[in-house]
Amino acid sequence: MSRSTAFGVDIGGSGIKGAVVDLEKGDLATERVKYLTPNPSTPELVAAAVARLVKEAGWTGELGATFPAVIKHGVARSAANVDKSWIGTDVDKVLTDTTHCEVTVLNDADAAGIAEARFGAARGVDGVVIMLTFGTGIGSALLLDGRLVPNTELGHLELDGHDAETKASSAAKDNEGLSFKQWAKRVQSYLRHVENLFTPDLFVVGGGVSKHADKWVPLLELSTPVKPAQLLNNAGIVGAAMAAHEKFTE
To answer: Of 48, 60, 165, 225, which one has the greatest count of Cβ atoms within 10 A?
Structure first.
């Protein structure tokens, strides 16, 4: 592979996905490979799955990895949808040791946000952009004029006495058997709350459920425009690869 590629891994509560990324196009250069997240999702088991992805791809260069937690200097400060033993773990070091690559780790929604800002729905958009990824939980990325404000964790805002993601995530929709119309009402309440707090110029909505954006985004009534993510489930992989490459080439 050329120097304009890097490997991206997207670690989630349910799956671990990886591929080589073409950094000039913001697209996957190889087929995406996915494994189920181990149960329990301990550092040892998750790192082994990531190492397997990298080894099977024959990759030895720059490697970026997303992680569903607040990440400060490579260390996980939370663990909402993975094993609690990750809290306080140096994710960067664990993955570097197991993959034998120089790894850059960042929050999963932050990775998706920078990918959408560079190559997707938020490309060229000035002002405040908030990306929200609806999956096992709700991840968030806050961008100002295309620059990331990391680790916002807006999915954990309190809404009607609950952690917002327990009611408005894609997992909540599936677990409770909600229709898109029923779920959209919850998303509406959540986005209105975020809108009142931040007055953004654009919402970008991602995660697996963004593939069906036509079934629920038109039901939302907000002052802020809402765009479906363009990179869909590849956004985390692309953003992770971008972060790895730009960290080592600055």
So the answer is: 165
